[in-house]
Amino acid sequence: MEIIFKHVTHAYEANNPLAALGLDDVSVDIKDKKFTAIIGKTGSGKSTLVRHINALLKPTDGTIMVGDREINAETNNKNLKPLRKNVGMVFQFPESQLFEDTVEKDIMFGPMNFGVSEEDAKTAAHDMIKLVGLDEKYLSKSPFDLSGGQMRRVAIAGVLATHPETIILDEPTAGLDPVGRKEIMDLFKNLQSEGRTIILITHNMDDVANYADEVVVMHDGKKIAEGTPMEVFNNQKLLTDDVLTLPQSAVFAQKLAQKYFKFDQLPITISDLSTEIKRQLNGD
Amino acid sequence: MNKLILGRYLPGDSLIYRLDPRGKFLITFYFIGIVFLANNVVSYGFLLLFVLFAVYLSKINLGFFLRGLRPMFWLILFTVVLQMFFTPSKDPLWSFGILTLSKEGLVISAYIFIRFVLIIFISTLLTLTTTPIEISDSIESILKPLKAIKFPVTQVALMLSIALRFVPLLIDETTKIMDAQRARGVDFGEGGLIKRIKSFVPILIPLFVSSFSIAYDLAIAMESRGYKDGEGRSKYRVLSWSMRDTVTAIVMLLITVILLFIRSY
């Protein structure tokens, strides 16, 4: 589903001396079936932005179109289920949402809330536990007996079990080991290639370079840039304003550029970097 | 979650903010006590004027105090209506079975209403202008004499300040977990009573799990920094009693005297 933000403003605690602008006149177009990364410093409004997509927050001003569903300040809390079924959301540290006595029941919780039959929900649980890279034997265990990384996978399985068309990820790999992080990110990339729309909030610029098609840069509740990772990481103004940092490959390239090498555009992934180095070493 | 005004601190600066929290704490309770001395229009009017003056001195918008009334609305309505219809009278304006409406009843219910407003306003004033940690410090300081009878004052104060510190943390955690479960299709406040109660299980269990883990982390952090209570711990926040606190206390005494005078007049 295409998601369009039109002049969205969100004030926390409106009409109150403690009022603070979470979002300030943000217009963004998140394209269907693309992998969009949202980056920005802590407190820049990334989480506030994505919470509008499944109406956990409502805008103070402006509208959001999710497919053909409109969300604005007047949207009421009834009938949000179809929207929330279509927009899955993996929160930061999603393991804190686990509560059932077995992993299987916890994964089935989402689908059953959305009116899926018990049998279908069970099938979904079996499919999803394998999808997130855990053995089916975990289904009968208590989620609280698992390790942190396994709990994370179970929680992600619980969100994917409703087969959402759009998946929002709020730092899904924070605190995971490097292998686990790569597995999880590859999983989401695969889901995208099957036709889902992925929205990722992250502080990891390498993930942005390696996985994202589009990048939205947030700063102080405003959208300050958008484009492909290549465009954003080569935007000198963003770098000098200290709004974002570069992926490792680009940092490496910057150092190489101090001697011998010359890059028109900073390569942002390892494969880009190595191709470019090879090309220049071969003397072209 | 953020709608509750009673019990919430509002950052600001004014005379009321600068008063010693110990004094403010005691005076608030003292004031709630003397509200019950009032017994006629003049005395209630006098107290109401005093409270409004205190609100004015705090430089906080009156709207905050009115919003503080909101969660108590049903309680106030219930009490007022009860007084209105169940006050026995020899000269009822209207009666039906055990229900009687009389002039006395109306007057008493009006007094009860003002009493509620006074008490809620003054306690809202205390919490809006005093941080929870100041309140717990002042309770510690007030309880100090109890050390003589081996009452664990410092432990109680520590428990109190940790409990207070956990309130915003748990509110954040609850909001987060509710959002996560909403995203998984839970509708809070929809359906029958049983369904509504059941919908809180997915919040309560994660909340318990995370509070235990936060508490455990806190205990480890405190121990690794060598926390040990007892004699000789110095304080980071030092409370100081100054002239304006003495003046406030004297004003309170004056109000008591005036009240007693109006009362018997």
TrEMBL record, chain A:
The keyword ATP-binding applies. It comes from Companilactobacillus nodensis DSM 19682 = JCM 14932 = NBRC 107160. This is Energy-coupling factor transporter ATP-binding protein EcfA2. ATP-binding (A) component of a common energy-coupling factor (ECF) ABC-transporter complex. Keywords: ATP-binding, Cell membrane, Membrane, Nucleotide-binding, Translocase, Transport. The keyword Membrane applies. One of its GO terms (cellular component) is ATP-binding cassette (ABC) transporter complex. PANTHER family: ENERGY-COUPLING FACTOR TRANSPORTER ATP-BINDING PROTEIN ECFA2 (PTHR43553:SF27), HEAVY METAL TRANSPORTER (PTHR43553). Its EC number is 7.-.-.-. It is a peripheral membrane protein.
Automatic annotation (TrEMBL), chain B:
Keywords: Cell membrane, Membrane, Transmembrane, Transmembrane helix, Transport. It is a multi-pass membrane protein. Its main location: membrane. The chain crosses the membrane at residues 27-57, 69-86, 106-128, 200-220, 241-262. It is found in: Cell membrane. InterPro entries: ABC/ECF_trnsptr_transmembrane, EcfT. The keyword Phosphoprotein does not apply. One of its GO terms (cellular component) is plasma membrane. It holds the Pfam family CbiQ. One of its GO terms (molecular function) is transmembrane transporter activity. Forms a stable energy-coupling factor (ECF) transporter complex composed of 2 membrane-embedded substrate-binding proteins (S component), 2 ATP-binding proteins (A component) and 2 transmembrane proteins (T component). PANTHER family: PROTEIN ABCI12, CHLOROPLASTIC. Belongs to the energy-coupling factor EcfT family. Transmembrane (T) component of an energy-coupling factor (ECF) ABC-transporter complex. Unlike classic ABC transporters this ECF transporter provides the energy necessary to transport a number of different substrates. This is Energy-coupling factor transporter transmembrane protein EcfT. It comes from Companilactobacillus nodensis DSM 19682 = JCM 14932 = NBRC 107160.
